[in-house]
Amino acid sequence: MNFSILSSLLSFFLLISCTLPKPKEPVAQPIGIIIHGGAGTILRENMTAEKEAAYRAALEEAIQVGYHILKNGGSSQEAVEKTIHVMENSPLFNAGKGAVLTAEETIELDASFMNGATLDAGAIAGVKTIKNPISAAIEVMENSPHVMLSGKGAEEFAAAQGLEIVEPQYFFTARRINSLQRVKEAEGQTQASAQERLFLDQQRYGTVGCAALDANGNLAAGTSTGGMTNKKWNRIGDAPIIGAGTYANNATCAISATGWGEFFIRSVVAHDISALMEYKGLTIQEAAKVVIHEKVAQLGGDGGVVGIDNQGNIAMEMNTPGMYRAHIDNEGKLTVKIYKDE
Ligand code: ASP
């Protein structure tokens, strides 16, 4: 064979090998998890180094639990549930133990969960004895024909499902008892001082929430809260309302909200973010910005959201000075933040 034939044959095979479709490398589905521990008037000048360290440690402990579940191939549902358990069991947050008190000096807990793969959802409101309300929300979703249960009925249902039931006293902490007294005193005054007003402001928030994306591309979100200090008449906020405090849809994103619940219900915050992505093609960050800074803020409300989309992109958006929040990305990189400007 002469040289020119050989070189033409070689170039021919080279060309073929370049143009033939290569066997596809399986693209690894990213995982990710994001949490919040409430948004509000969280200011550096009012924070001690110990308090800040305690919050950062609690956020990290909680999110690592969920991340390890995802990393080991577990579902986003399990990651959200177990992550929220850590925050519900911590007295630092306004969910489960450490929740805020109502005007009647009781504790009434709300929670919701949504599965983005099936669009199944569950919620409970106004419960006083369920140790981990997020699990009760999941039980409602999985083992009842309903989406939302409240009060005594929700407690009976949770007990029948084998969930841990505790005395109402379990949830009380000295810090929240004192806060209620101060809030009542300040609300009774016609002219509260600037310091009192700041204190009132700081008592409003502290809800916990989580959104996760698992290795199967499934999204889930959950939110759990004691609501707002000094709430009256069995008030229910946005946290247990699917579409307001919590929403998840594999086609778009998973969202958990925190803030002044009345405004979040009226703005249908969590679903609105998903809808802007689905119908208008916005990214999760663009959508979260519109809903928090334009919709909620224009009504006069404040708070924030955390969310993750089906590619692992995230949003942490707030119109308050701070939001306790953390994220672990697909590479395992942890971010923990408290103040808006960090
Ligand atoms: N959104 C909650 C509620 O209104 C409060 C919070 O997020 O801190 O009940």
Query: Averaging pLDDT over every residue, what do you get?
Result: 92
Domain module count: 1
Kindly state the percentage of residues in helix: 25-40%
CATH topology: the name is Glutamine Phosphoribosylpyrophosphate, subunit 1, domain 1
CATH architecture: 4-Layer Sandwich
Give me the oligomer status: single chain
Strand order of the largest sheet: 4-3-2-6-5-1-11-12
Features:
alpha+beta, about 20% strand, binds aspartic acid, about 40% helix, eight-stranded mixed sheet, Glutamine Phosphoribosylpyrophosphate, subunit 1, domain 1, four-stranded antiparallel sheet, about 350 residues, globular
Quick structural summary:
Helix content is 39%, strand content 22%. The protein has ten helices and twelve strands. Bound molecules: aspartic acid (ASP).
How is the topology of this model organized?
Elements: H1 3-19, E1 32-40, H2 49-71, H3 76-89, E2 109-115, E3 120-127, H4 133-143, E4 148-150, H5 151-160, H6 174-188, H7 194-202, E5 208-213, E6 219-225, E7 246-248, E8 253-259, H8 261-266, H9 269-280, H10 284-299, E9 303-309, E10 314-318, E11 322-328, E12 334-339
Parallel strand pairs: 3-4
Antiparallel strand pairs: 1-5, 1-11, 2-3, 2-6, 5-6, 7-8, 8-9, 9-10, 11-12
Helix pairs in contact: 2-3, 3-4, 6-7, 9-10
Bound molecules: aspartic acid.
